[in-house]
Every structure is written in structure tokens, then in C-alpha cells.
Write a structure and sequence with these properties.
By secondary structure, chain A is an alpha/beta fold. Chain A is built from 12 helices and 12 strands. Chain A binds a DNA duplex through residues 9, 11-13, 21-28, 31, 33-37, 40, 55-56, 58-64.
Chain lengths: 341, 341
DNA sequence: TTGAAAGCGCTAACAG
DNA sequence: CTGTTAGCGCTTTCAA
């Protein structure tokens, strides 16, 4: 591990001296805050390059009003690839505005979150992305009251907050319409029990698609279980016992789809010919790994991260108009849907 | 979206005035850099609390030598939960030292990485965690030459760099011994083809465990494929066609295990009674979701992140002795291992 | 088109 | 045990 170089860093005044101008001019050469003689400017830039000058964001921000740093606060960052996608998208958007992301996960602990906000405030971040890994309705901690905040994969009752979530209703619509278009009439829904926006929205979309196709919703084809493979298995077993059997299942997520595959295998029912399945998430590990591969709706995590950071930076730059966005989700067609037998 | 509060921030001098001491004393009350009269200190702290004073890390760092900020550079942060785990562990360790993590993913693009390093340098981070999502041997970009750097889930030829990786050999040993202890004699290995440390180490551990049990390695039981479910399926099909059939398979990772499950199902072979399987990773989605659930070796991503940040901060604080760590990986017993029929 | 000087909020000498 | 003073590296008035 090398230690930091001993020689003093080259600063704006070194560049100024070498280029034969004032520090002020060097500053302006970089910031463009005022017009310079193009030749002077070119000479300054070239000199800076040659000396290996790197501006000091701390000093800049101490004098100015921005730190070019955004705080990213999430609940659990560790259990799914979702977090990574949101962070990655947000990071990319931040980079487009010369900003950077400080990432913190509270693991759902309120006191830890409070400390993290304090820390971020201490670093004078320009704003906060308050993210959830699963679409939730949240109440933003009051320490964030007077800050720039954008919610990612979350909404809130506060209409002054910008937020971005997936279009859950659209997901239900897209998935169910796809199944209907393939010829299915008895389409089941394997969903979760909790009172969360994703469950409500997707189910409403499912029912709306059925209705618009003139299909009656059969309540015996709607089952609720936990949102994991075990829950999907349970739901699958129940659904496959119905008579007449559904010819397709729209699952709340890919994990439940995985369980439905297991139930179908156990019952000797083949996918997609005897049963079509559509999931939600596009967790590659599952969707691309299942046999047959899973047709699913991709959740726009990277896009939400990007949107949130872009919105936040716009607010930092003065456009504080709140916007609540609902992002479209694309169907990813793979091998789990076929016409009914 | 609320705009930042207009009123001037309370600074160290406001606190000093209100508490009837000098700014210096306030500074020391917080930093503990010199002894204060306990009463004075208490009064200062109380006053600061009352006024809602929050120190400004930028100002502190501009004067001092540290920014209390670490750069986290990774390749792909978005595709697996691994990244989240490493970040989460690193973030926790950083927090223990009042530091914070700026997270950047290059998506494997060298020029983008170079720009990110520049950005981080511009923020004067105290050091860099250079992380890979899959155990690799890397060469650190030369822009990082004179910086504090610790590798996470990666090694390098440079012995002056600290690094932390999983004990790959130990993984092979643990998995294979577990199978041997269950009574297996014909144990297959489904691994990947690439020239990466994880593949070499796990295979060597597998062979060592076989050897120490007096079992001859049967090359027909070692098959290589891609490290995903499709590869696992392919390997599984090949392995299950051997005569006599292996009674157990040690898979390079959980994803390949998933494919082996599919191959077994296709061949009508039941797990664990006719075939035992051990994976590596403990990707919950797979390991807990498969039927039966998968016995696997957990990769210590959070621990690597924690280790890397701790080591880096120790270096920042003066202990620059390089250390190359190899972390033990724990067996997670679930339902995919049983004695051979 | 360019400079000089002041100062962002804090800490570290150097006193006392 | 505590205060005074001088900056950290930059940007921003104010002047020229």
C-alpha cells in the first residue's frame, strides 16, 4: 500500500504562476464563470494539464454553494440485485452532472438511518435520494424536511416530494394482455398478501385486462402467498388443483414463478404447453436460468435510479417543481408462454 | 421538494459566542484533540446541540489532512447481490471510523474508470477500495499508484497492495469433505472453464479432499461448462450419463447447481436421495428457493467489504503494512445432501 | 479582459 | 486549561 505522495499538491496558484496569470484567471478558465481571452484560457488549461493540476472539490464547495455530492439512502442494499441497479443508474446520472453518490444502507433501522442522515448533512450533500428496494409508500424522516429529496421506488403522501416508481397497474395490464393475446382465457394470478402498492397495482391491472377482454375474473384463480419460491410453489399447487385448470399464471414476481415451475414439475405439467407463466422483475438468475426461460416484465431499477438523480440535480440547480413519475415496464419475452393446449 | 433553508447555518463561531468560549475550544470539544475542562466541554456540546450545530466535514478536511471519504470502485455493480453485500460491509466499516463511501461502477470500461478515479481524486478521497464482483486477479490502474488502495474480491501481483479474497481452496475442501462425510465416494465436479482463481482454487480443494480420503480423482467426473444454469444443466446431463453414475456433485456455484437440478429432474433422478448437490455462493434466491433447498458454501462478500474498508482506514491512519487476507467460507447446510442410496 | 483581496468553516501553531 | 492568529484551496466581489 503506497503512502500519499509527499510533495505538495499543485494548486490553482501554482498553475497561475506557471501560466503567468492570476489565480482568479485560472479559476475562471475552468469554471467558465466569465469570458476569457481564448488564448489565455488555452494556455492556462495546457499549463494545468502539464503540471497535473486537479481541482479540489472541497475547496470549491466551501466557497460556493454545492458539494457535487448526493446522498443515497436505502433500506436493504444487500439482498437483491435491485439495489445495485438503482445505485448504478443514479451514479450514472450524477456523473453526467459532475456529481458523485455517497451510498448508505440503514438495513431498516431507524436510528441508524438518523445517524446516516446526520453524517450526510455533515458532508453538506446537495440532496438525498431516498430509495426502497421494493416499491413502498414511505414517510420521509423529518431530518430531511428542509432538504432536497427525491424518492426512488417509493412514494409518499407529501405532494411536495418528487418520486419515481414502476407503473404497477401497467405491469398487470401488460402481462395479462400478453397471455390473452396468446389465446388464454383461464388466467390465474399468484400474488402476495401484503398491503403494498405493487400488489394492489398489479392485481388491478390484471383485472382490468381481463375486463377489457370481456373475461370474468374467477376468484378461485386468484391466490395469495409469500413472494418467494415457496410461496409460488404453494400457489402453484393450489392453482393446478382447480377444475378446470387455469392454462396460464401471472405471478407477482420471478421468485414466485420459480415456485410455480416447481409445482408444475411435481404435477407433471409441462411449461409452456400445458401451463404458461409470466413473472415480474427480470431477475436474470431466475428468468434466464429457468427451463424454459421465463417471460417476465422487467422492473426499471436502473432507470428509476437515473430518474431520481436527474430530478434531484435539477432541483439542486433550481428547478424545484415536484414531479411524481411512474415508469413503463417492458415485457421480456422468453419461453414460458405458449397458446393453450 | 423543499428548498434548502435560507437562514445562515450555525457554525463553530456561533456556538462559541453562545457558550462564551473561543472557536478553538468548540473545535476541541468535538475533536477531543486536546483536553478541556469537562464542564466547559459539556457546556459547549450542550450549546451546539441546542443551536443545531452540525460540523462541516469539508471545512475540517480542507484544513486537516483527511476527507473521511473513501472511494469504492467496482466493475459491475448491477447484476448480482454480491456488489450490494460488499458495499454494505464496506459502508459499515467506514461508518465505524466516521467515514463514508463514494460508490462508482465502471461497468468494465477502462476510460470510464479513469474518469471516475479523476473525480474521486478531485474529491480528495482518503483511499480507494478496488472491488471486483467475481474473484479476479487485477492490475490496478496506474492513476492509483500513489494512493491508498485495498483490493476486495481481487488480488494483484503487486505485493505492496492489501487485498481480501475468499479462501477458494478451502471452499473446495469444505464442500468435498462434507460430501465424503455423508458417505459419498463418486463425487463429481461441475466447474467453469475460465482461468480464474476461483476455478483453480475450488478444483484444487476438491482434489485435495479426495486425496486425503484416499479417493482417486476420476477425470470423467470433472466437467467444465459456463457458470450459469445452462452450463450446470449441460454439466449435469453429461455427468448423469456416466456409468457408474456419480452420487454427488460439487458445483462451482449456485447457478450451476440450479442447472444440475434441472438435469436431474429431466432424468427423473431425485435430489438428494439419488444425487447430492453442493453449491457455492449462497445466493438466497436460488439456494433457499430450490426444491430441495441447496446446501452451499456462502461467499463472504459483506465480510470482504468490511475487511477492505477497515484495512484501508488503518492505512489512512498510518498503518500501511500490506496484508493479503483469505477469508474462510462457511458451509450452509440445507436439504440437498444425503447419504448415497 | 484581467487582478487583488476577502473569506467559505474549520484546525493547528503558537501563545498565555 | 484556553485564546489568537493564520491559513487550507478555491470563488467571488470589487476595481482596474
Amino acid at each position: 500500500m503506497a503512502t500519499a505522495e509527499p510533495k505538495r499538491r499543485v494548486g490553482i496558484r501554482d498553475v497561475a504562476a506557471a501560466a503567468g496569470v492570476s489565480p482568479t484567471t485560472v479559476s475562471h478558465a475552468f469554471s467558465g464563470a466569465r469570458a476569457l481571452n481564448p488564448d489565455t484560457r488555452a494556455r492556462v488549461i495546457e499549463t494545468a494539464e502539464r503540471l497535473g493540476y486537479l481541482p479540489d472539490v472541497r475547496a470549491r464547495s466551501l466557497r460556493g454553494s454545492r458539494t457535487y455530492t448526493l446522498g443515497f439512502l436505502s433500506d436493504v442494499i444487500a439482498s437483491t440485485p435491485h439495489a445495485g441497479r438503482i445505485v448504478s443508474g443514479a451514479q450514472a446520472a450524477a456523473a453526467e452532472h459532475d456529481s458523485v453518490l455517497v451510498v448508505l444502507d440503514s438495513d431498516g433501522m431507524a436510528d441508524r438511518e438518523r445517524r446516516q442522515i446526520r453524517t450526510l448533512l455533515t458532508h453538506r450533500v446537495d440532496g438525498f435520494i431516498y430509495a426502497r428496494m421494493f416499491h413502498r409508500s414511505v414517510v420521509v424522516p423529518e431530518e430531511l424536511r428542509d432538504q432536497n429529496v427525491v424518492l426512488a421506488d417509493a412514494t409518499s403522501d407529501d405532494p411536495s416530494l418528487s418520486s419515481v416508481v414502476p407503473d404497477e397497474h401497467g405491469i398487470g395490464l401488460t402481462a395479462t394482455r400478453h397471455l390473452i393475446a396468446a389465446g388464454h382465457r383461464r388466467i390465474a394470478l399468484a400474488t402476495i398478501g401484503g398491503d403494498v402498492p405493487a400488489a394492489h397495482g398489479r392485481e388491478a391491472g390484471y383485472r382490468a385486462a381481463l375486463a377489457e377482454a370481456g373475461l370474468a375474473a374467477d376468484e378461485r384463480l386468484v391466490v395469495r402467498a409469500s413472494g418467494d419460491p415457496a410461496g409460488g410453489y404453494e400457489a402453484g399447487v393450489a392453482l393446478l388443483a382447480r377444475t378446470p385448470r387455469p392454462t396460464a399464471v401471472f405471478c407477482f414476481n420471478d421468485e414466485m414463478s420459480m415456485g410455480v415451475y416447481q409445482a408444475a414439475a411435481a404435477a407433471g405439467i409441462s411449461i409452456p404447453h400445458e401451463l404458461s407463466v409470466v413473472g415480474v422483475d427480470d431477475l436474470r438468475i431466475i428468468s434466464a436460468g429457468l427451463r424454459p426461460s421465463l417471460t417476465t416484465i422487467a422492473l426499471p431499477h436502473a432507470e428509476m435510479g437515473h430518474w431520481a438523480a436527474s430530478r434531484l440535480l435539477a432541483a439542486v440547480e433550481g428547478d424545484t417543481e415536484p414531479v411524481q413519475a411512474r415508469l413503463e415496464c417492458a415485457l421480456v419475452e422468453r419461453g414460458s408462454v405458449a397458446p393453450p393446449a
